[in-house]
């Protein structure tokens, strides 16, 4: 007997932002994310509470990916930040913290949300125009003819992830490796449509970070290979190794169709016929003088034996992630059937050897052209290795983005405070016609601009996790950190040596003031200056593309959330 | 799905407290004298005897996140080094406590993190001067072994009591490297390692001490084993107990001739300095674990002999396996060439039939059952078979075809990596084919190498080139020929000519000690392995820790550098530079307290010191003298050489063996420090736990529900 149940009406929630629960959750989320920010950020232990593995991290990609949230408002926020992360890898926390701050600051203003949105859009365009202009004081050009700036970019990414547990030497070592790996992936002969190669991370957990290394070509783990014996490979007349790449399982079970039943007579073995088919493939491979067979999945032991007896090296279980780079590197087309074998699928390889790291054995495929490389990444324990892997991938991505747009922004909070002082200066000097265009009053504009600046400054503020003061100077608009434990009346020039990004020293009188993030009176100031020296060796730099996108995403998401009037929940 | 979020109290850090209480359980496992622990499972009333940090952590219930990370860290150290886990566990506890104290003094987290990790780096660099290369260690240990006072030692007397003085002993050593040899008889047996061509070193025969030149048949190398047993020309089988320090069973000179000595009982020889050095090195690294050391010494001797004196002083760990025999006294532990394993009594008849025969051997790297398929083969679920003549049973068909295969290729012995079908095993016994299951991959490889067998996965793959030949099987016998009837299973030795594989047969009559003995053996094997890999060792007995303490003392007293100066050409760190200098001395003291506690506990565990206070006084005394003398490392080195360094705690050797040197692994030790500090700092920097998963109600109802917030 079927039973019909009446549908429940959908639940309407009006003005979700005014509800207590939402703002509490929002401020809790903001607190969590702020506490993670920067090189001194605090870590979070993510686990399931029943003895599962523990992820210790301060990275937004790890935290946001595993935080299930109940409220749609938080859902919107996290979805757009995650989307930003998937496109840029970097500046996820910046985006999320800025977005939370903007919502909190704008909500407390006594201005209608549609006016806030209009004004904030105008502010964003001011920022973006400034960041894109030559006159921008918080960006540096990246010179690809020297490695210094690139090293700074990578180093800043690694240093901002304390859960990687790296010391100075280790940071330097990995920075060099990541850059080296990146340079491998840049094709030597650039054509108009040059495509970057790929760096594959090979996990070696339990080892010292200093044991990490980069090799051109690819490594495939082969537990049963014996290192003592040198590999003898069949070569073609041009002294290359002919290679076949299979993406189909060669374990001899592919007669198993998705549905339906096969009926066979006793004495007929499907397994045997399948194996014969495989051995035929083997015969053809031997005839075609293939020297190396790589299979994504498993190769039947009998076929392996046959190939071995005929001098062909067979490597199986290469894994899905290696297929694309393998195919790219060797020029072989992945073979998806064991019934059709076209000689045009074969690729070629320059050399093949065995390598061993920690207790793992690998075959090392060495190509002619090295756009594909392997980063053998070591770290002492599992949780720190996972964190380091994420950091390396981010750094690699940052380099790729920088190659497209050779610019970088000053890090260490300096870009945020500098932008804030630029907007403060700019919003005072705006002409009346501009306000008419936006359809708001000067006061409204000032209020929103101040909220915007305070939000930016609060991002810089969250870099500090101990009780020290944070200052900004009136000349360059950079960010300065006073170490904790000093009385507030101390003479600042004695305490601060360099600004957050490391570009300015305390040599001249920079007229510092306290940066209090939230509730301070608006400051009127001059347009911040461009620092005189722009090339320094040890700068904290952020990815230009990622930060610009983060700024836009944060503001647009905040606007979207402010604009939410109803939440409609389907209760069925 | 909901997320719970817990703030970790910054002042009384929960994670650090958890770490410190977990580590407390491991205090007695530190140092050469350990106290074992019984871990009792209250639900089953079963108990386990443990004597190492790994086993302790394995047996504890670690549900907290910090406990989980601790477990991960200890396992990682164990996987990589097999030693240093107790040190790691102890330092985790000591540093957690010290950091909690720093937090209570309001030291900022970032200052603790930076000063501590910089401090450890600096210490690790500083203690490099206490590293000694293996070569130097060998030289030193060999020369120290002929010092007059060394011959006074208890065990040495057994080896050289017939020598008039130590000069002669030295002479004996020198002579032996270019010995004048007189062939006595030559054996025509095929068994290379059972019967030696005997040679006698004539100049020394009169002393009642002997050196036997051992020349395995079929082996080009010549090696010399010196012994304290008297070799007579009529004795075709002779036991070789010839360590100058130890006699395997501690028997008198002549008793060693009696009994059934199988010749494969190995002992260290003294043909070259390099050689005896490895034996000494093993002893210096054994930290008082004599039984394991003796075993290792004989393994080293065997491997060195095989290495044809090529000068390679590497220890091949992959060629060592262990076999645990329960029911024999511990003194029966020994190293046997080949592979010793336990088989069922039914198979013994086959073994008796095989004795003295050369066998054809097959290696299988999977299971030997009908159902077994290689990894990655997915069994079809939608194939139906029509049977027209249901007379023949499937299983029988498989059995007989497999058996036919084995018989056709005249296979006598099959080593299987996985399980074996019992029916097949029975049928094989009836046909005099021996199936040995659960054989590890490196054993298969070793047999493949010397017999020419190629491992296969299925018997259907069998062809002539897969089958190897020349394997031999015999019952394993204890050194005195004592019946090794261990109830259910019988120990069997499988070997082949020239096989590099060695089995360390570990015996004990106490079941609960088995695991412990095996663990200790492997620890020592890996200590020697890592020492040879590092090519250097640390001075042991607290020297390294003492230098760390002295170095930190110096760092604390160093004038603080103004923040402006040290930031010149370095990557700028605005948060840390200035604040770190402010709290430097407090944090450095916390770092030092870890090593200080370590020394105190090690000394107290050895019970050579009456109280921690006494040790503390001694440590302070040394630190003061080290500082006074201007060069602490030179002072420590001098004291170490004199054997005066913290002598009241130099381990169990201290009373009867003066001048005994204790050494430690370099990488394993510094890595244990680093891993311990990394873990503590990782937990310190954690300010919140995020619990994901569908357990909201459970958390809400638990007694800690008030600590959680829900998003």
Structural write-up:
The complex is a heterodimer of chains A (572) and B (711). Chain A has helices spanning 20-36, 60-66, 72-88, 92-107, 113-132, 148-159, 168-185, 270-287, 301-309, 320-330, 382-404, 414-428, 432-438, 442-461, 492-495, 544-562, and strands at residues 11-14, 43-47, 55-57, 139-141, 198-205, 213-216, 218-221, 241-246, 262-265, 292-295, 313-315, 347-349, 351-357, 360-366, 372-379, 407-410, 470-473, 479-481, 512-514, 541-543, 566-569. With 572 residues, chain A is α+β, with helices and mostly antiparallel strands. Chain A folds into three domains: 11-138 and 410-569, GROEL, domain 1 (Orthogonal Bundle); 143-217 and 376-405, GROEL, domain 2, CATH 3.30.260; 219-254 and 269-369, GroEL. In chain A, strand 10, helix 9 (301-309) and strand 11 (313-315) form a beta-alpha-beta unit. The longest helix of chain A is centred in the C-terminal third of the chain and has 23 residues, at 382-404. The radius of gyration of chain A is 29 Å and the shape is globular. In chain A, 50% of the residues are buried. Residues 517-522 of chain A have low confidence and may be disordered. Chain B has 711 residues and is α+β, with helices and mostly antiparallel strands. Chain B has a domain at 317-373 and 396-536: GroEL, CATH 3.50.7. Chain B is 42% helix and 15% strand. A six-stranded mixed beta sheet of chain B has the order 11-17-16-12-14-15. In chain B, strands 5-6-7-8 form a four-stranded antiparallel beta sheet, with no helix packed on it. In chain B, strands 21-1-22 form a three-stranded antiparallel beta sheet. In chain B, a hairpin with a 6-residue loop joins strand 2 (37-40) and strand 3 (47-50). In chain B, helix 1 packs across helix 3, helix 2 runs antiparallel to helix 3 (65-81) and helix 11 (290-306) crosses helix 16 (514-534). The termini of chain B are close together. The relative contact order of chain B is 0.16. Classes of the chains: A alpha+beta (572), B alpha+beta (711). Chains A and B meet through helix 1, strand 2, strand 9, helix 9 and helix 11 of A and helix 3, helix 5, strand 13, helix 18 and helix 21 of B.
């Amino acid at each position: 007997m079927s039973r019909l149940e009446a549908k429940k009406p959908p639940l309407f929630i009006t003005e979700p932002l005014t509800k207590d629960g939402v703002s509490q959750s929002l401020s809790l989320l903001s607190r969590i994310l702020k506490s993670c920010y920067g090189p001194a950020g605090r870590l979070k232990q993510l686990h399931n509470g029943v003895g599962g593995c523990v992820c210790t991290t301060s990275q937004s990609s790890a935290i946001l990916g595993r935080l299930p949230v109940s409220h749609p408002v938080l859902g919107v926020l996290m979805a757009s930040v995650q989307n930003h992360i998937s496109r840029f890898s970097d500046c996820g926390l910046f985006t999320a913290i800025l977005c939370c701050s903007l919502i909190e600051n704008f909500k407390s203003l006594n201005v209608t949300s549609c006016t806030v949105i209009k004004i904030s859009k105008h502010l964003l365009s001011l920022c973006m125009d400034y960041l894109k202009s030559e006159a921008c004081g918080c960006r540096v050009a990246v010179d690809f003819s020297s490695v210094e700036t690139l090293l700074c970019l990578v180093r800043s990414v690694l240093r901002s992830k304390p859960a990687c547990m790296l010391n100075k030497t280790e940071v330097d070592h990995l920075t060099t490796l990541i850059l080296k790996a990146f340079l491998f992936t840049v094709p030597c002969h650039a054509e108009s449509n040059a495509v970057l190669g790929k760096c594959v991370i090979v996990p070696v957990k339990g080892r010292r970070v200093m044991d990490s290394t980069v090799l051109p070509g690819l490594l495939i783990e082969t537990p049963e290979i014996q290192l003592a014996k040198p590999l003898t490979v069949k070569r073609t007349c041009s002294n290359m190794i002919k290679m076949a790449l299979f993406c189909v399982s060669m374990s001899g079970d592919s007669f198993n169709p998705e549905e339906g039943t096969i009926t066979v007579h006793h004495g007929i073995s499907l397994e045997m016929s399948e194996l014969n088919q495989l051995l035929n493939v083997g015969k053809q491979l031997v005839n075609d003088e293939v020297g190396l067979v790589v299979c994504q999945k498993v190769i039947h032991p009998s076929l392996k034996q046959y190939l071995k007896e005929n001098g062909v090296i067979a490597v199986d279980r290469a894994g899905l992630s290696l297929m694309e780079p393998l195919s790219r590197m060797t020029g072989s087309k992945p073979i998806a059937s064991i019934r059709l074998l076209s000689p045009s699928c074969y690729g070629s390889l320059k050399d093949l050897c065995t390598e061993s790291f920690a207790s793992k054995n690998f075959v090392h495929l060495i190509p002619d052209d090295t756009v594909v490389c392997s980063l053998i990444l070591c770290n002492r324990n599992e949780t720190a290795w996972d964190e380091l892997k994420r950091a390396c991938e981010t750094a690699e991505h940052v380099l790729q983005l920088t190659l497209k747009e050779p610019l970088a922004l000053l890090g260490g909070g300096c870009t945020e405070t500098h932008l804030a002082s630029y907007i403060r200066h700019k919003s005072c000097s705006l002409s009346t016609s501009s306000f008419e265009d936006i359809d708001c009053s000067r006061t409204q504009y000032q209020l929103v601009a101040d909220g915007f600046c305070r939000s930016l400054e609060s991002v810089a503020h969250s870099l500090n996790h101990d009780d020290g003061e944070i200052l900004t100077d009136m000349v360059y608009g950079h960010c300065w950190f006073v170490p904790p434990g000093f009385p507030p009346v101390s003479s600042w020039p004695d305490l601060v040596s360099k600004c957050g990004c490391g570009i300015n020293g305390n040599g001249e009188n920079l007229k510092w003031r306290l940066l209090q993030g939230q509730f301070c009176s608006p400051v009127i100031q001059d347009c911040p200056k461009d620092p005189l020296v722009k090339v320094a060796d040890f700068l904290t730099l952020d990815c230009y593309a990622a930060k610009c996108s983060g700024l836009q995403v944060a503001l647009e998401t905040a606007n979207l959330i402010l604009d939410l009037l109803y939440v409609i929940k389907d209760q069925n | 799905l909901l997320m719970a979020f817990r703030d970790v109290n910054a002042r009384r850090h929960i994670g650090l407290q958890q770490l410190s209480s977990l580590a407390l359980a491991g205090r007695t496992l530190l140092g050469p004298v350990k106290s074992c622990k019984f871990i009792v499972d209250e639900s089953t009333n079963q108990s386990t005897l443990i004597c190492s940090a790994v086993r302790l952590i394995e047996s504890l219930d670690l549900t907290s996140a910090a406990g989980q990370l601790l477990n991960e860290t200890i396992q990682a150290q164990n996987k990589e080094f097999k030693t240093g886990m107790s040190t790691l566990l102890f330092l985790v506890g000591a540093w957690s406590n010290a950091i909690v104290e720093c937090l209570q003094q309001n030291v900022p987290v970032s200052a603790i993190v930076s000063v501590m990790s910089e401090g450890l780096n600096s210490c690790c660099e500083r203690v490099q001067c206490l590293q000694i290369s293996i070569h130097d260690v060998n030289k030193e240990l060999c020369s120290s072994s002929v010092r007059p006072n060394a011959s006074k030692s208890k065990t040495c007397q057994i080896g050289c009591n017939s020598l008039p003085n130590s000069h002669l002993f030295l002479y004996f050593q020198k002579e032996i490297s270019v010995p004048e040899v007189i062939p006595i008889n030559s054996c025509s047996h095929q068994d290379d390692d059972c019967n030696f061509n005997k040679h006698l070193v004539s100049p020394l025969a009169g002393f009642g001490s002997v050196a036997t030149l051992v020349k395995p048949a079929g082996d080009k190398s010549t090696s010399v084993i010196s012994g304290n047993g008297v070799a007579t020309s009529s004795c075709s089988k002779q036991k070789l107990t010839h360590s100058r320090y130890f006699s395997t069973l501690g028997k008198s000179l002549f008793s060693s001739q009696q009994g059934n000595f199988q010749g494969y009982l190995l002992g260290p020889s003294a043909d070259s300095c390099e050689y005896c050095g490895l034996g000494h090195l093993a002893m210096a690294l054994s930290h008082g674990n004599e039984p394991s050391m003796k075993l290792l010494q004989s393994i080293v001797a065997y491997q060195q002999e095989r290495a044809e004196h090529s000068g390679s002083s590497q220890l091949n760990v992959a060629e060592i396996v262990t076999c645990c025999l329960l029911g024999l006294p511990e003194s029966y532990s020994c190293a046997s060439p080949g592979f010793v394993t336990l088989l069922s009594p039914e198979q013994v008849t086959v073994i008796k039939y095989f004795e003295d025969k050369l066998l054809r051997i097959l290696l299988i790297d999977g299971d030997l059952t009908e159902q077994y398929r290689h990894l990655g083969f997915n069994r079809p679920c939608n194939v139906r078979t029509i049977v027209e003549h249901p007379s023949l049973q499937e299983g029988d068909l498989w059995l007989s075809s497999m058996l036919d295969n084995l018989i056709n290729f005249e296979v006598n012995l099959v080593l299987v990596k996985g399980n074996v079908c019992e029916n097949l095993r029975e049928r094989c016994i009836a046909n005099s084919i021996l199936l040995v299951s659960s054989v590890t991959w490196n054993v298969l490889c070793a047999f493949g190498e010397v017999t020419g067998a190629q491992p296969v996965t299925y018997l259907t793959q069998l062809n002539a080139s897969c089958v190897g030949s020349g394997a031999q099987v015999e019952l394993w016998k204890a050194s005195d020929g004592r019946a090794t009837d261990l109830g259910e299973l019988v120990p069997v030795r499988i070997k082949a000519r020239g096989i590099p594989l060695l089995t360390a047969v570990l015996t004990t009559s106490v079941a609960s000690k088995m695991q412990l003995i095996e663990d200790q053996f492997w620890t020592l094997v890996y200590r020697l392995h890592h020492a040879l890999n590092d090519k250097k060792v640390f001075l042991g007995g607290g020297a390294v820790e003492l230098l760390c303490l002295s170095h930190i003392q110096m760092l604390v007293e160093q004038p603080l550098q103004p923040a402006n100066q040290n930031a010149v050409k370095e990557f700028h760190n605005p948060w840390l530079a200035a604040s770190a200098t402010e709290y430097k001395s407090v944090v450095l003291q916390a770092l030092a307290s870890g090593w200080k506690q370590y020394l105190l506990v090690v000394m107290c565990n050895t019970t050579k010191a009456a109280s921690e206070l006494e040790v503390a006084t001694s440590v302070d005394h040394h630190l003061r003298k080290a500082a006074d003398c201007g060069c602490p490392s030179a002072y420590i080195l001098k004291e170490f050489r004199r054997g005066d360094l913290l002598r009241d705690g130099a381990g169990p050797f201290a009373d009867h063996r003066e001048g005994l040197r204790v050494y430690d692994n370099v990488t394993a030790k510094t890595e244990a420090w680093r891993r311990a500090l990394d873990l503590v700092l990782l937990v310190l920097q954690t300010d919140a736990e995020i619990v994901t998963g569908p357990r909201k109600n459970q958390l809400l109802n638990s007694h800690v529900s008030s600590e959680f917030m829900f998003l």
